[in-house]
């Protein structure tokens, strides 16, 4: 539907930005009573900034065509982070530009003296973070006596971050007759208490879809070995090739490590964490907006409130702390009607934790293994054929140069050079262990016929170790362990298959006897026990009770002690 009646200046700004119809939350606030406070719950990416900008127009402008000279602020917007505050200031800047708005920002990490001068020069709207706004208020730099509208954006985040006292101090200083807009993803008990204290007869708006947390986001859950998490991030980035991607890590150290690793592989990435200066953070975000970087690696705190253009992919390199964190992270994509993908990387030991997380969050995710190199190369081929450069009409200069090139080089050689150029711009995908499927326990996934034939025809005997993926089993350290315990070399070890709780491997027939003697002696000395096994894919083996304890020699009666008489037995008590 078209936008309902709005202030003429704002209508011109919306038309210039290409807005044709409102989002649900924008339509709801425009239809709300013009003199009421608003208590709004809306999912992230729903157009909240434009929504409260439109709702505030009546109080800020009334019937006037534009703003008068700037003095004490008429509107105040409080946001949890400096990135979100600066983003809100940009949005309100273009929305109110035709009305001649003057906006001042007050955020942590910026020069407070410059902010003080901006406030002293006058502003129609002030946007800031709670701590910095309270500081200016207590120093007498911020005058709230003329406020007509106060907006709390992402109020739930601000309360979670411990800003309750700051918010109360700011709101207590504002005129009682102001309008107060409170926007939050959820209306929890603390939010409701804040609304009762600082709002009057608030109009309630709820546009959150409870049964579909993020309708425009496709969720994927990827099973990987713990040692393959980093390789999985690489292959997911390569598989989707999104213009913008956001990768979440649990700690600053993890951000630094993954940033260095992806840079080394040739990815255009930036990092965001709390230890960076404001200039470094601003430069990183600007690189993303300009397209100079394609991915951002961040912690949860650093990524709060980010609205990045063309962000089509979110990767959870570390599992979120809980369902709210999962939804908040994922909500960075799928914004304003665009489609997005959220990929949860679940190492095998944390698979059940990931399943519970998705279940509690009410999210349906498609489970699979990580993208394999052959799948990525197939997508690269399809993207090459669909490259806009091939469909773009050539200019006369392009045609002339192409003819001269074909006079000197064969057409097939020119096409091959184009393919090489295309591939040279893409980081190589990583080799990853194939997905073992949804089966649990030690039940092996059915093998391809050719792989099973390879196992059946292989020369040698099978053994097993009581170590599997649940204990981070990996051939890189299993092979040296087998060689040490069995007194064999790497060439004596054949096929290896790793399951959840055990690993099966093959030993060449000509060293089998020596291998069994060595591992038996090692087990008797307290080392890890290695037992004979059936080949992978064979019928289930009998239980311990049915077959006796494998790997031990048959029981023999103990020989008498020839060095002295047998020990005396203590008499049994009666």
Put the structure in a nutshell.
The chain is α/β, with parallel strands linked by helices. Strand 3 (103-106), helix 6 and strand 4 (125-128) form a beta-alpha-beta unit.
Task: Describe the 3D structure.
There is one protein chain. This protein is an alpha/beta fold and 574 residues long. The chain has three domains: 8-206, Rossmann fold (3-Layer(aba) Sandwich), CATH 3.40.50; 217-372, Rossmann fold, CATH 3.40.50; 449-547, 2-Layer Sandwich (Alpha-Beta Plaits). Helices cover 40% and strands 15% of the residues. It has 23 helices and 18 strands. The strands form three sheets. It has a seven-stranded parallel beta sheet, sandwiched between helices. A seven-stranded parallel beta sheet has the order 10-11-9-12-13-8-14, sandwiched between helices. β12, α14 (323-330) and β13 (340-347) form a beta-alpha-beta unit. α14 (323-330) packs across α15 (351-361). The termini are far apart.
């Amino acid at each position: 539907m078209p936008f309902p009646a709005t202030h003429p200046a704002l209508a011109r700004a919306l038309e210039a930005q290409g807005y044709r119809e409102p989002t649900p939350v924008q339509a709801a606030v425009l239809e709300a009573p013009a003199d009421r406070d608003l208590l709004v719950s809306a999912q992230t990416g729903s157009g909240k900034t434009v929504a409260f900008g439109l709702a505030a127009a009546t109080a800020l402008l009334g019937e006037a065509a534009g703003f008068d000279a700037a003095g004490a602020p008429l509107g105040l917007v409080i946001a949890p982070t400096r990135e979100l505050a600066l983003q809100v200031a940009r949005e309100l800047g273009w929305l109110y530009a035709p009305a001649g708005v003057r906006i001042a920002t007050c955020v942590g990490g910026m020069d407070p003296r410059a902010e003080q001068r901006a406030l002293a020069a006058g502003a129609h709207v002030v946007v800031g973070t709670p701590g910095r706004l309270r500081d200016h208020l207590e120093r007498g730099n911020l005058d709230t006596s003329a406020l007509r509208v106060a907006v709390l954006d992402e109020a739930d985040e601000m309360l979670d971050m411990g800003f309750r006292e700051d918010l109360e101090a700011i709101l207590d200083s504002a005129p009682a007759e102001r309008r107060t807009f409170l926007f939050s993803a959820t209306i929890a008990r603390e939010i409701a208490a804040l609304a009762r204290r600082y709002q009057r007869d608030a109009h309630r708006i709820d546009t959150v879809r409870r049964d579909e947390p993020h309708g425009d986001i496709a969720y994927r859950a990827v099973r990987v070995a713990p040692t393959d998490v980093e390789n999985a991030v690489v292959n997911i980035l390569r598989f989707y090739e999104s213009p913008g991607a956001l990768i979440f890590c649990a700690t600053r150290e993890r951000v630094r490590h993954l940033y260095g690793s992806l840079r080394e592989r040739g990815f255009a990435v930036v990092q965001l964490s709390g230890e960076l200066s404001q200039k470094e953070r601003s430069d990183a975000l600007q690189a993303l907006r300009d397209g100079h970087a394609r991915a951002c690696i961040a912690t949860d705190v650093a990524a709060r409130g980010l609205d990045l253009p063309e962000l089509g992919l979110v990767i959870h390199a570390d599992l979120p702390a809980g369902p709210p964190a999962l939804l908040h992270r994922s909500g960075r994509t799928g914004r304003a009607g665009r489609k997005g993908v959220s990929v949860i990387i679940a190492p095998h030991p944390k698979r059940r934790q990931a399943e519970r997380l998705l279940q509690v969050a009410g999210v349906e995710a498609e489970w699979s293994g990580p993208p394999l190199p052959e799948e990525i190369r197939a997508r690269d081929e399809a993207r090459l054929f669909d490259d806009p450069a091939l469909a773009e009409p050539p200019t006369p200069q392009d045609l002339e140069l192409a003819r001269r090139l074909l006079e000197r080089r064969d057409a097939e050689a020119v096409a091959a050079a184009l393919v090489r150029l295309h591939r040279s711009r893409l980081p190589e995908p990583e080799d990853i262990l194939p997905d073992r499927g949804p089966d649990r326990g030690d039940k092996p996934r059915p093998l391809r016929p050719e792989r099973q034939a390879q196992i059946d025809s292989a020369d040698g005997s099978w053994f097993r170790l009581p170590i599997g993926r649940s204990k981070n089993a990996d051939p890189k350290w299993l092979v040296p362990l087998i060689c040490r315990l069995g007194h064999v070399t790497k060439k004596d070890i054949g096929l290896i298959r790793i399951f959840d709780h055990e690993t099966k491997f093959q030993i060449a027939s000509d060293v089998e006897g020596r291998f069994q003697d060595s591992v038996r002696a090692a087990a008797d000395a307290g080392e890890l026990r290695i037992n004979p096994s059936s080949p992978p894919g064979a019928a289930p083996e009998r239980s311990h009770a049915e077959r006796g304890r494998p790997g031990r020699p048959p029981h023999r009666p103990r020989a008498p002690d020839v060095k002295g008489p047998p020990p005396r037995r203590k008499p049994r008590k009666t």
